[in-house]
Structures are given as C-alpha cells and as structure tokens.
Specification:
The chain is of the alpha+beta class and about 375 residues long. It is built from 11 helices and 17 strands.
C-alpha cells in the first residue's frame, strides 16, 4: 500500500522527481506553474511513497469545463513501470480522484517506451523492437478500461541520441549529408552562440513567426513564449541558442533539460541565407552543449505517427534522422473515462470547436 502526499515546495518536488524513473521536464514544478499562468490549469503535485521512500510522482493538472473537470498528467506519472504493484497503486489513486471530482476525463501520458525502430522498417542496423515493459503497461491500461486517447497532446514518437558516445562517434553515426552540411555552415561563416535576455527572446520569437508562416502552423502570442522560455532559462532548465551570419540571426533553438535528458523543444529559422545550412550547425552545437553537461540522452522531441512520406512531419523527421539517432515509440496518451456517455459527447463536439477556433485564429493572423 502506497501513501500519497501533496508537495507544496518547488525544490523538494523537483529534487524528488529528478531521481525517479520516467521523470520528464513536463512534470517539473516550473511546467505546472507555467500552465497555470498561461492556460488556466491548476497544478497539484502528488508524491507516492512506499514507507518513506518516494516511488512515484504525478504533477496533476486540472481545469474546469463548466460543471465538469478535465485532468491531465503531462508525460507522467513518473515511476518504475516494471513494478506492477506500484503501477496499480498509482493508477488506483488517480482513477479514484477522477471519479470523486466528476472528471470528464483523466489523461496520462507517461514517458514509457513501447518500442524502438520503425515498425516494418528495413534498416538492418536499426531493426524494430517492442519493449516488454511498455507492452505490459499498455495491456494493464486496456484491462482497466483506459482508452487510447484521440487527443495525443504530446508527440508519441521521437528520435533520441546516445550522448555517452564520443563526439567522433556521434559524427560517424550521422548521415554523410548531415556531416557535410555541418561543415558547410562553418565554412560559410555561420556561428552559434547562447541566447539570453529580452532582445534575444524577441529575436527567437520573430524567427518562430517566420517558421510558422513557412510551414503552416499557428503560434501563440509573444508573451506565451516569453513566459515559457524565460521561466525555464531562469530556473536553469532551458538553454537557447542563436545561429548567426555576419551578425544576422538565421536560426534559433530552445533546449529544455532535466534529469537524464535534454529535449529539442523549439526550433526556428529565417527564410534568408538558408543555403548556409545554419540549422545543422545549430543542432550540432546544442548536442555538444548537452553532452558537455553530462546529459546521457538527447531527445529530438517529435517524429511521425506513421513513418511515411505523406505524414506532415516527414520532412522534419528526415532532418532529425540525419543525426543518426534511434526512433523511439512511446505508449502515448491514455484516457480514463468515469462517464462514458459524456465522454462520447465530448469526442463528437470538441473537434468541431477546435476546428472553429483554428479558423478564427487564421483569420486573425
């Protein structure tokens, strides 16, 4: 039997979370505080203890939807998912909370690997492999009545690099084209520097606007990203970089880091001087930065749901894949539904609402 304790001290929460398996930066104190300020979620930090030993943690976000609530544990809970007793105890507690609070749904999105490699892939050096622990967690959730969510808030698949290798080995594992473009950027006068301060954050946002217009995705107002980037940079959990040529910003990158990982969360680039390949050198310098600070894993944060050329993320994936990482498939987001009828109504109505909101946003843009 696990006991549950609410944690109200930032440093205690982060320090405890960091030592747990499957810990993720989206479970940190700072992410919950950011979501509270910017999008109205109320965070609640729950620590699960076996005696006095912390064995699990869930930063639970709640938001009211009229008389109902929706609940979300982004990239969590954090715990040892090979321990079936602890998994059961944590799920029991979260399910009870969802019922007691009349939640429309409770979504979890643990950082649990379902497998590696591309299903049906033909690369003998990187064959697909199912992870036994991840497959068992999927079976457990299904047996408990959880539903694979139609709303996958975070990326389900990604590409990761093993930073315990030497820099020479990392370069050797890259595609020939990626290595050439890194050298080309240096040869053509591109330099990379850390970014900080209001002026640099504004520059990053301007580059992000250009990227969004070029690639056809909507971005939020400057204040949203200023809050996200500055909050994590000040907390020592993010590092921004700018690639420049003759003093002109060409590309930017914001790296989040926590526990054993660094995540490439945001990337942005200008339409100018793209032939100088600034994004390749920028990515390499971010990888080197993470390696130098002892992070064993670099996460490119995002890969296609289906690995085919018609997937919207295919081009971005090909860029990331050139750095020679491993495709990692996570179990994704799962919903616990206390009231099936209300959830079915929500699933029918909400896509229409979101579509209307996107149309309005495009008109505003």
């Amino acid at each position: 039997m696990l006991t549950v304790r609410a944690i109200t001290a930032r440093d205690k929460w982060n320090a405890t979370l960091e030592r747990l398996p499957a810990a993720h930066v989206l479970q940190t104190w700072e992410w919950g505080a950011f979501k509270q300020v910017e999008t109205g979620w109320t965070p609640e930090r729950l620590l699960f203890l076996d005696g006095e030993q912390p064995v699990g943690a869930a930063s639970l976000l709640t938001r009211r939807a009229g008389p109902l609530r929706v609940m979300y544990v982004p990239k969590g809970p954090a715990l040892d998912y090979a321990n079936s007793a602890h998994v059961a105890a944590v799920l029991d507690h979260l399910q009870t909370l969802a019922r007691q609070r009349r939640a429309l749904w409770l979504k979890i999105d643990p950082d649990v690997i379902a497998g590696t490699g591309i299903p049906g892939g033909s690369d003998p050096a990187r064959p697909p492999h199912d992870d036994p622990t991840g497959q068992q967690v999927i079976a457990t959730l299904r047996a408990r009545g959880w539903r694979f969510s139609a709303s996958q808030v975070q990326f389900r698949n990604t590409v990761t690099l093993d930073l315990t290798q030497s820099e020479d080995d990392l370069l050797a594992d890259m595609s020939q084209g990626t290595r050439r473009k890194i050298r080309q950027a240096t040869k053509h006068g591109v330099s990379v520097r850390p970014a900080s301060g209001e002026a640099d954050l504004t520059t990053l946002y301007r580059l992000y606007q250009i990227t969004g217009a070029r690639q056809g995705f909507l971005i939020r107002p400057l204040d949203y990203y200023r809050e996200a980037w500055a909050r994590f940079i000040e907390a020592g959990r993010a590092q921004a970089f700018l690639a420049e040529w003759e003093g002109t910003p060409l590309a930017g990158l914001v790296l989040f880091h926590f526990g054993p990982k660094a995540w490439y969360f945001y990337g942005m680039s200008s339409n100018e001087e793209r032939q100088r390949m600034p994004t390749y050198l920028l990515q390499w310098e971010a990888i080197r930065w993470a390696k130098a600070r002892g992070y064993p894993t670099y996460d490119f944060w995002g890969a296609p749901d289906t690995f085919s050329e018609d997937d919207p993320m295919w081009g971005v994936y090909r860029f990331k894949d050139g750095f020679g990482g491993t495709v990692v498939r996570h179990i994704g987001a799962w919903d616990y539904v206390p009231n099936a009828a209300l959830y079915a109504l929500y699933e029918r109505v909400m896509p229409r609402v979101l579509s209307a909101m996107k149309r309005l946003a495009r008109r505003g843009t």
